Amino acid sequence: MSKRNLVLKKTLVAHALTLAFSAGVLTVGVSSTAFAQSNATGTVFGRVAAGLGNSVIVQNKDTKLTRTVTPDAGGKFQATSLPTGQYKVTLMSGANVIRSMDVEVLLGQGVEATFDAVQSVEVSARRTRIDVSNTNNGASFTSRELAKLPITPSVASIIQLAPNTTRGDSRYGGGNAPSFGGASASENAFYINGFPVTNVLLQIGASELPFGSIGQAQILSGGYGAEFGRSTGGVVNITTKSGTNSWEVGGSASITPNALRNKSKNIYYPNTGASENVDTDGDLYLYGEGDKSSSHTLSAYVSGPLIQDKLFLFANVEQIKSTSEFARLSSASSAAKDTGWNVSENKTLRSLIKLDWNINDDHRLELTNITDRPESDRKYFGLDYATLQRGNVQNGGRSYENYGPTPAAAAVGADVSILKYTGNITKDLTLTALYGISNTSHTDLPLNYNPALLQTQSTPATRVTTIAGNYTTPQKTTGNILTPGAEDKQKVYRLDLEYKLGDHTLRAGLDHNDISTLAGTSRAGGGIWSYGKLTDPNALPNPQSKSPASGGGYGANGYFVQRINTSGVSAPTVEQSAQYIEDRYQVTKQILLSLGLRNEQFTNYNGDGQAYVSQRNQLAPRLGVAWDVNGDASLKAFGSAGRYHLQMPTNVAIRAAGSSLFTREYFTYTGVDATTGAPTGLTAISGVTSANNEFGQAKDPLTVAAQNMDAHFQDEISLGFEKAYSPSLNFGTKVTYRVLKSTIDDFCDQRPFDKWAEDNKVDATNYHGFGCALFNPGQSNNFLVNYNGDGKTLVPVNLTAAELGYPKVERKYTAVDFFVEHPLRNGWYGKLNYTWSRSKGNTEGQTLSDIGQADVATTQVFDYPEISQNANGLLPNDRTHQFKAYGFYEVTPQIGVGANLLLASGRSKNCIGNFPDDSNPAAAYGSAFFYCNGVATPRGSQGKLPWDTRLDMNLVYRPAQVKGLAFKFDVYNLFNRSTIQNIDEVYNVDTGVVSSTFGQAISYTTPRYAKLTVEYSYKF
Q1: Which of 327, 386, 546, 620 can pair with 287 through a Cys bridge, CB separation 3.0 to 4.6 Å?
Q2: Cα–Cα distance measured from residue 301 to residue 797, given in angstroms and rounded to the nearest whole number
Q3: 221: nearest Cα among 153, 169, 158, 175
Q4: Hey, CA dihedral for 693, 694, 698, 699, is it positive or negative?
Q5: pLDDT tens across 324-380, in order?
Q6: Which residues contact residue 999 at a Cβ distance below 8 angstroms, ignoring those fewer than 6 apart?
């Protein structure tokens, strides 16, 4: 081969690598929507030197999907709405091929294919180019790169590779509940093939797909364009793999054995030093060293053409089974001796079926069907804390699907079906239409639960002595239970248009989500028989009842029974709509300006279909600028500014606007059923009563929320640059500033309404009192109040922020990111990110990680203004320093190694105690204030938890003798650094003494463990 041809070959190879990897693959600097017409495709763009050619053919190398575009007068061209994958870009002059190159189209990004007048350049002189067509912040990963990195096979692990992300509080699911840019875990949006898969009930987490089905994953931490909304945290945008013109089958099996897992840590009572805790300080609280955990995963796929060049299939099924044993109750629990040890068998079935039909080169249909069903069966045994031995007799248990002991932290999947059409109507006009549905069923089934058997409660003093032995019920399930048939349904419609007009790429679109939910809990068994006794049989057990003596039976001796019913079940619905318009204007050859405007509408309805919150005309301007400084894609300066809105989850209606049932009926009785413990020979001495008028009717939708509230929304600005210094080095930096402008939560303080009535001479004699209502904290709010108690007459009450007593909502996030990257050259890839950030304010957002409260958007943060005192400081998701480094090295064609490192400073610590003034009505909240021992303890003032240090590594062996076979060994947390993730920050217990668990560890990082995997694929 001649030297000239060798140089040319090296040039083409380098060019392909440059385009494939420097445009954003594993690049945490910036990734974008580029010219992408929808959020599930990509773009090829570039220039043709004058007189070199008159058309460009862009062809998918796997499916032969072909687009032909014509350069404009300046030589610029672009092909938008391309499915992700490998493409061949060919420059034509009439029917003659002038030149071609290979590129990779990435999700939501632009890849450049420029045909210069000079055909070849020495490889050593070529600089690695960067994507100059975008302003978004985040990271993009392809399936090939993900396969080489030592990460657990989950979307959560991909998210943690990106800057400005951190794991959420373990009580929300930890890694499955990420925080983006200081926001709470409920403020993120998740998409698969353009369809939103975010958990609609609580907005924490999302349904997933088989990990081997992920084609590309885009993690956006800010700066995204007008086509994205319903997020003030981040966006996780995933596209699936598709079939190609070659048949391929494959599968994998992995095992994570308990034998290769280090012991978990015991959790001990902290040394509080308080005299009341002398018997517990330093003692064992929760036994952890006996934990066991193992899992195995089986996955299989098939891919190929049902009709060559036209119809393609990709199908993947994955089953994950795991078993675990751990202490579910602490040494402080009297029930630990019976049900303190948990043995779980967990199973998650995931599948994907993807059909792609290239009707012709201008029209394409995609059908996606996804199944994600996490189930957990739990068996309870006794745990003797004196000997640290578990029992062998099962005393209880529970089965879950898409639910869990803590619903906010549970894995939640869905059955999803998506139909998508993409049409190139003309050479300048592209249309995309999407319709999809999802369904999630929730199950909570206790062992041996009888839904028709009421619970009973009694004490020796309330039992008739002659039948005292018959008062016990076989109903072992106490408290409340998830309503049968609980589910979430979602219908999604989306339409996007793109029109190219000279230097302008005009885009517009709309979407609409219809969400319905059946949720809530009711008393297990349908209610409780609660036995009582009055010393005076002629007294009244309730002002609305008669005396026990009047009912006869044992009532003559003062004995009675009440049937208590409680339920908070509701079927709320939500409508979410949005419209956007955007102009991507190539101002000059080197400057791209993106101007967008998004308008969103959120309407939340109660179970009776009545709107209790309706937010319209929420305008969100978006601005982005990208400057190709040198005009050769070697240095980019970029910036963005925008406003982002967030909806309330459907679960808000259950607590704040749903139907509430809390009734009591009083009876006398003549006996007790020896089998069920239920009373017999009943005589009613009352009707159905309710102290708070909670008879199962819906709350008045006009009174449960302030009128015309602002939505939860945030403003953001970012500036940065990215430099391709050489073929072996990229680096860059970015500054991000976010400020929360408004939020929605509930408050329960009646004092402002009493004062308003007094000041305005309003008769409140029959006022039933203020419960709780949704409002905008720190702003003026308008309420409707039923002062005369007739349930009809509503008085407008306008209260300023000062009259309500709340400070302005504050959450500010500032971050500076630096990255250094070695693109894939000479067999290795590596990237180092450092983020300095500060997340400060008086609210985390829709969640309350300080105490792990699961009531999303209805936390206790603003229930009383006193809770806001001293609340401004470093927030739970603040991590001042984060180093993230990852990469891989192909030692030989058969052997590869990968590494993933995290160094993150710990979260701030708090001391949350009782209010110093016992006479204040807010003091009834107990340990909920930033006071300890009557002294102000501002948020984040108690120091920080230790640094989180984790190193994961892997080794891959691909024997040359068997093509397609690979063995993989992953080790997670190689140095076994088990670090405290969060602690109990509650200082007092109800009696006002120091809590014995104040400062105690709640969770540690997972100890070292290993996974063995074998993979095989065969191409026909």
Answers
A1: 327
A2: 62
A3: 158
A4: positive
A5: 999 999 999 999 999 999 999 999 999 999 999 999 999 999 999 999 999 999 999
A6: 270, 272, 909, 983, 984, 985
Helix (H) or strand (E) holding 624: strand 611-628
Distance CA(156)–CA(148), nearest Å, equals 17
| Better-predicted residue by pLDDT, 659 or 155 | 155
Query: Got the DSSP string for 890-924?
Result: ESSSSEEEEEEEEEEPPPB---BB--S-TTSGGGG
pLDDT in tens, 665-680: 999 999 999 999 999 9
Which residues are CB-neighbours of 350 under 8 A, at least 6 positions away?
Answer: 208, 209, 210, 317, 318, 319, 320, 370, 371, 372, 373, 413
Local confidence band at 124 (pLDDT 50, 70, 90 cut-offs): very low
- Give the chain's largest Cα–Cα span: 113
Q: How confident is the model at residue 127 (pLDDT cuts 50, 70, 90)?
A: very low
Mean predicted confidence (pLDDT) in 678-699: 88
Strand partners, 361: none
Check whether 122 has a pLDDT greater than 50. no
Q: Please give the single-letter amino acid code of residue 719.
A: L
Determine the Cα–Cα distance for residues 941 and 387; give it in Å rounded to an integer. 40
Q: What is the pLDDT of residue 39?
A: 67
Sequence letter at residue 754: D
Alpha-carbon span 185 to 594, nearest angstrom = 29
Task: Quote the pLDDT of residue 130.
Answer: 77
User: Residues near 941 by Cβ (< 8 Å), separated by ≥ 6?
Assistant: 873, 910, 911
Cβ 816 vs Cβ 733: under 8 Å: yes
Calpha distance 525→135 (Å, rounded): 56
Q: What is the mean pLDDT of the chain?
A: 91
The CB density around residue 756, as the number of other CB atoms within 10 Å, is: 19
Q: What is the pTM of this model?
A: 0.91
CB 880 within 8 A of CB 846: no
Query: What is the average per-residue pLDDT within 897-916?
Result: 97
Amino acid code (one letter) for 286:
L
pLDDT of 587 over the 90 cut: yes
3-class DSSP assignment, residue 651: helix
Give a three-class secondary structure readout of 250-294.
EEEEEEECHHHECCCCCEECCCCCCHHHCCCCCCEEECCCCCEEE
Please report where in the chains the tokens 């999604």 appear, as a residue. Answer: 492
When pLDDT is cut at 50, 70 and 90, the band that residue 771 belongs to is confident
Tokens describing residue 315: 């199908």
Q: What is the mean pLDDT of residues 385-406?
A: 95
As a whole number of angstroms, the distance between CA 1010 and CA 973 comes to: 9
Token readout for 843 is: 């609210």
**CA distances to 398, 411, 414, 571 from 401, in Å:** 10, 9, 11, 19
Structure tokens at 74: 């300046």
E strands, 458-608, where?
A: 480-482, 487-501, 504-518, 521-523, 528-533, 559-567, 573-586, 591-605
Contacts of 35 (CB under 8 A, 6+ apart): 43, 45, 78, 80, 110, 133, 505, 584
Q: Which residues pair with 611 in a beta bridge?
A: 605
Using one digit for the tens of pLDDT, what is the confidence trace for 254-292?
999 999 999 999 999 999 999 999 999 999 999 999 999
* Spatial CA neighbour of 837 closest among 804, 805, 814, 854: 814
What are the two backbone dihedrals, phi and then psi, of residue 867, each rounded to the nearest 5 degrees? -70, -25
- Report CA Rg, the chain: 31
Q: Is 888 helix (H, G, I), strand (E, B) or coil?
A: strand
**Residues linked to residue 490 through DSSP beta bridges, in sequence order:** 438, 515
Query: How far apart, in Å, do the first and last CA atoms of the chain sit?
Result: 32
Give the whole-angstrom CA distance, residue 136 versus residue 644. 14
Report DSSP state, residue 710: P
- Determine the Cα–Cα distance for residues 213 and 243; give it in Å rounded to an integer: 11
